[in-house]
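Researcher: Here's the sequence for the chain we discussed earlier.
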Amino acid sequence: MFARMALATLLLTLLISGCTPAPKPEIRIGTNIWPGYEPLYLARNLGWFRESGVRLVEYNSSMETMNALSHGSIEAGALTLDEVLSLAQDGVDLRVVLLLDVSNGADAVVAQSGIDNPEKLRGRTIGVESSAVGGYIIHRMLEKSGLTLQDVHILPLTLDAHKAAFTSKRVDAIVTFEPIKSHLLANGGKVIFDSSLIPGEIIDVLAVRSEVFDAYPEAFAELTEKWFQALAYMQNQPDDAARRMQPRLRVSLDQLGQQYAGLQLGTLQMNLSFFNNATNPPVKKAEHLAQVMRSDGLLHRDLDLNRLFAARNMYAGHGGHRP
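Model: Thanks. This is the structure I predict for it:
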């Protein structure tokens, strides 16, 4: 009798467990403050991640995001493509799953009053965060201006030191981005180079540790859907979206609009074009970027770019709904 009861209990337990949906995986996404990442926080503010297992982790800089992603403290990170290539070079196996934005002026070199072009930086000090994107922007500015790294002095600065270093005139120019860029311009700074001069070269993507993406591809398909819904909300409910986004970015509503003037957010159509299997634009773009980084000493070996963008199959056969 006891054997029958034990068997019945076991069968009931198996039946109940078989009917219980599997728990959502925890997906921790690291970001720093950047307008291009804000739709993720808008989606969270609207409650769309409540049942999904997605948790946003805010860091002070992209370098902190890179370190956390490298050590497995987070499952995914919002980073510039050059930062992703740097991680891949260090052996971090990643998958790019979403084009978040294309910088079209939001990243800039802001100079002190009286310095109105890059050529006037010869012999002067440029502050820059110790990140791949900072080095890349300096490389492209110097290249286009006929200067070299030997012609300027580079001062590494953490992101939270940008405002003080500029206002105290510790630096003659600084590589920075929104929302700090707008603050420096309001205090007499002048843009002498920005990402609009190198169109399509500074892009932000969502990179995921490969073992996590391979285990939970549906979770990232759902995440990309929430991203596109957040962009639609910004378009259809602009006032409410701005009200929700403005406090986190610590800017006025007027300044919020200015910050997005230099950005193209990654719409569904942009992602479909970016991840097009036929023309393979992400690999071509990454190859060009890697070539520039190698020439500047930022990359030292070849990378398997097809592996990095293997998640593009998530967009194949998209029929207008979620990838």
